[in-house]
Design brief:
- The complex is a heterodimer of chains A (113) and B (113).
- By secondary structure, chain A is mostly beta strands.
- Helices cover 0% and strands 54% of the residues of chain A.
- Chain A has no helices and 11 strands.
- The termini of chain A are far apart.
- With 113 residues, chain B is mostly beta strands.
- In chain B, 0% of the residues lie in helices and 56% in strands.
- In chain B, strand 7 (61-66) and strand 8 (71-76) form a beta hairpin.
- The radius of gyration of chain B is 14 Å and the shape is globular.
- Chain B starts with a strand and ends with a strand.
- Classes of the chains: A mainly beta (113), B mainly beta (113).
- Chain A binds chain B through residues 1, 32, 34, 36, 38, 40-41, 43-44, 46, 49, 91, 93, 95, 97, 99-104, 107, 109, and chain B through 30-31, 33, 35, 37, 39-40, 42-43, 45, 48, 86, 90, 92, 95, 97-101, 103, 105-106, 108.
Amino acid sequence: GAVVSQHPSRVICKSGTSVKIECRSLDFQATTMFWYRQFPKQSLMLMATSNEGSKATYEQGVEKDKFLINHASLTLSTLTVTSAHPEDSSFYICSASGGAEAFFGQGTRLTVV
Amino acid sequence: GEDVEQSLFLSVREGDSSVINCTYTDSSSTYLYWYKQEPGAGLQLLTYIFSNMDMKQDQRLTVLLNKKDKHLSLRIADTQTGDSAIYFCAELGHGGSQGNLIFGKGTKLSVKP
């Protein structure tokens, strides 16, 4: 199956700093990428949907100025958590789709201290 | 490590029942989930089951859990063309005190009229 690489897998940062998470489709062109967040012991929550070359569509309640999403190419999307706070600590996972199917990255565990 | 496996394709006729199967490896999983993804859309949580339950029914959906065999299934009664989608099985795996979702690769359900 297709491969989606997400990096880094774990990151610890200080409160107030920004963190960038990358999601790459390694062997296919991803026209759409999805970013999810998982709260502790809870299910996944869709944060935003991004289509290559256009602005991301954010779900209700997700701050677009805080969670910056860039989908500049067909193989790369980035999520930047700006001015991170401890409450942003979570598991973030991307999903890339080139058509009807979508493939998941490995996820990123973000801890803000 | 933790792994979730499911068959990639399933084809049924409209009105029949669909059964999507999933196996997982982490015997300490507390929650198991079924997600649906329609073409071009993000994940939609369909249902979940707590590990101390054997069965959960929600309208046309029935989830069966065999914890001994680490086998999870999703039955869709009276399958409709609108049920055509990719169905992902996921388990809440280990990840320190928080836990991460581990996804299968998805089963593509095709419903023929």
